[in-house]
Write a structure and sequence with these properties.
Radius of gyration: 24 Å
Distance between the termini: 23 Å
Bound molecules: glycine, manganese (II) ion
Pfam families: PepQ_N, Peptidase_M24
Binding site for Mn(2+) 2: 243, 254, 418
Mean pLDDT: 95
Strand order of the largest sheet: 4-3-2-1-5
Shape: globular
CATH class of the largest domain: Alpha Beta
Number of strands: 15
Number of domains: 2
GO molecular function: aminopeptidase activity; metal ion binding; metalloexopeptidase activity; phosphoric triester hydrolase activity; proline dipeptidase activity
Largest sheet: 5 strands, mixed
CATH superfamily of the largest domain: Creatinase/methionine aminopeptidase superfamily
Binding site for Mn(2+) 1: 254, 334, 379, 418
Order of helices and strands: HEHEEEHEHHHHEEEEEHHHEEHHEEEH
InterPro entries: Creatin/AminoP/Spt16_N (IPR029149), Creatinase/aminopeptidase-like (IPR036005), PepQ_N (IPR048819), Pept_M24 (IPR000994), Peptidase_M24B_aminopep-P_CS (IPR001131), X-Pro_dipept-like (IPR052433), X_Pro_dipept (IPR022846)
Length: 441
């Protein structure tokens, strides 16, 4: 990647943080990556994920016990832990042009270093939550720190060109995996074999995935966060849902595809949902209300349920009586970036004002309007989830559900189609996921 992109990204971050320093009258903001955690009563750790606030500053995956210090009119300072550890790979500082924009301080004892940072600064990251006493920042209380976080998180939603290129690269790596996963499904592979094919083609280990891949055959594709990978293939693989991403410099892609083994009622349903999904992706433009897009999704899915003879009620009635949520219980999508569900999606200003979704869309993760530079997911779904169907049958007298048709579709599980879309300044959404699929053709 062009190093000037990273440099201008750094300049944007510096000006955002200088605005925060000025606004809150602070001398410094200290970002901490966090520490390794351990399983209870054990010396083994889950994979380490740094605090996204520090990862945003550095063009390589950030490890534990690392800090960044931002002061007005100064180069950012990277505080790098020197580890006296023969159990793990040496913790050397990555080489590269990025270094010339930084002051790098190597420390052997990060606790001792922390005690040297005093006064009027805000420490952001897990250290401030779990270990507040280790920073001597009694001048700045937690409520002010939360306000500083909100101020910074609000701007984080707008991606710099460097961040967009990272998410684009993460899409490209993931799409290579998705293509191999589809091939493995069509050859009758098990969920585990499909996952291994995905990892190999997207050149990552399972620990590096931005979130655990969801790989479901048949009924399993109706389980929204299905976490298992069966080692034995079913006797017949009718359908396949894969929700899987990749990372670049800490930035994620988050992509879902659903396939049918044969042309039938289920594949026709996939085609209808894809048409709706594409039309929603086409509306990812500056000033568009995302809540309104979610409402259009509910209406669009109700239309599909009627068209495919799954529910006989009118579109309006399905939406008004929340029957459509039986088949589409989640939100349309979310902001995407360093975190798969990126920060700031419900924050409508720098003061941290939260716009809570209304009661009929409790799982919507994005209530903020779309702006140029945001990357969001567009991920409508349509599932046959026994628990939700039973609930609707038990609570709605005139439900209009065609139980025979539903019973015939239940063995296929469900459908989700998810792309990552950038809001551009020319009114044309840039669908980073579809662009990658086209590049592989
Ligand atoms: N992969 C999690 C999500 O789509 O939100
Ligand atoms: Mn996903
Ligand atoms: Mn998603």
């Amino acid at each position: 990647m062009d190093t000037s992109l990273y440099q201008s990204h750094l300049n944007t971050l510096l000006s955002r943080y200088e605005a925060a320093l000025d606004h809150f009258k602070l001398d410094a903001i200290v970002l901490s990556a966090g520490r390794k955690s351990y399983y209870f009563n054990d010396d083994l750790s889950p994979a380490f994920h740094p605090f996204s606030g520090i990862q945003q500053w550095l063009p390589f995956p950030v490890g534990e016990d690392t800090f960044v210090v931002i002061r007005a009119s100064s180069k950012p300072e990277l505080v790098w832990p020197i580890k006296n550890d023969f159990w793990h790979a040496p913790n050397s500082i990555p080489k590269g042009d990025w270094q010339k924009n930084w002051t790098i301080t190597e420390v052997k004892d990060t606790e001792a270093w922390k005690s040297t940072i005093k006064g009027n600064f805000a420490a952001l990251g897990p250290e401030h939550i779990t270990n507040a006493s280790s920073f001597d920042n009694s001048e700045v209380n937690n409520s002010k720190i939360n306000k500083v976080s909100a101020f910074i998180d609000f701007d984080k939603a707008i991606k710099t060109p460097y961040e967009v290129e990272c998410i684009r690269a993460a899409n490209h790596a993931a799409v290579a995996g998705h293509l191999e996963a589809e091939r493995a499904f069509r050859e009758g592979a098990s969920e585990l074999e499909i996952h291994l094919a995905y990892l190999k083609a997207s050149t990552q280990s399972a620990f590096e995935e931005p979130y655990p891949s969801i790989i479901g055959l048949n009924e399993h594709s109706a389980i929204l966060h299905y976490e298992h990978k069966n080692t034995v293939a079913p006797s017949s693989s009718r359908s396949f849902l894969i929700d899987a991403g990749a990372s670049k410099n800490g930035y994620a892609s988050d992509i879902t595809r659903t396939y049918a083994a044969q042309e039938n009622d289920f594949s026709a349903l996939i085609a209808s949902l894809e048409k709706l999904q594409l039309s929603l992706c086409g509306k990812v433009v500056n000033n568009q209300s995302y809540i309104e897009l979610h409402q259009q999704t509910l209406t669009g899915i109700a239309a599909i349920l009627k068209e495919h003879d799954i529910c006989s009620l009118s579109i309006e009635e399905q939406v008004e009586r929340s029957i459509v949520q039986t088949f589409f219980p989640h939100g349309l999508g979310h902001l995407l970036g360093l975190q798969v569900h990126d920060l700031g999606g419900k924050q409508v200003d720098r003061n941290g004002t939260i716009l809570t979704p209304s009661a009929d869309m409790p799982f919507l993760r994005m209530t903020r309007g779309l702006e140029t530079g945001m990357v969001v997911t567009i991920e409508p779904g349509l599932y046959f989830i026994p628990m939700l169907i039973e609930k609707t049958l038990a609570t709605q007298v005139n439900h209009g559900l065609n139980l025979k048709k539903i019973e015939s579709l239940r063995p296929y599980g469900g459908i989700r189609i998810e792309d990552n879309v950038l809001v551009t300044n020319d009114g044309q959404p840039n669908n980073l996921t579809r662009e990658s699929f086209v590049r592989f053709q």
